[in-house]
Design a protein that fits this description.
The chain has 88 residues and is an all-alpha fold. It has a single domain, classed as Cytochrome c-like domain (Cytochrome Bc1 Complex, Chain D, domain 2, Orthogonal Bundle), CATH 1.10.760.10. Helix content is 53%, strand content 0%. The protein is built from 5 helices and no strands.
Length: 88
């Protein structure tokens, strides 16, 4: 996955827009609950694939209903690229 600075900045904004930090922490590693994974520093491709599988399973609906609309594939990839660049 190519990750230029504009894509990373867009991923950071999408992370904020979709309120991912509400569960995963603003730094993507300070989750508020034990069963919420720490994401910072994960491989972008793996994170994107796992997230898309999670979203497709629809098990997220009760957890993510307050986040509004679900991110699409491109948005998930950009968010994943942002998260991959964060320190563990």
């Amino acid at each position: 996955m190519a990750s230029d600075s504009s894509s990373i900045a867009e991923g950071m904004q999408l992370y904020k827009d979709y309120q991912c930090g509400e569960c995963h922490g603003a730094d993507a590693k300070s989750s508020k609950t034990a069963n919420v994974p720490k994401l910072a520093g994960m491989n972008a491709h793996d994170l994107s694939a796992k997230t898309m599988k999670f979203l497709a399973s629809r098990t997220h609906e009760s957890v993510m209903k307050e986040c509004g609309e679900t991110p699409n594939n491109v948005q998930v990839k950009k968010i994943s690229e942002f998260i991959a660049g964060l320190p563990r």
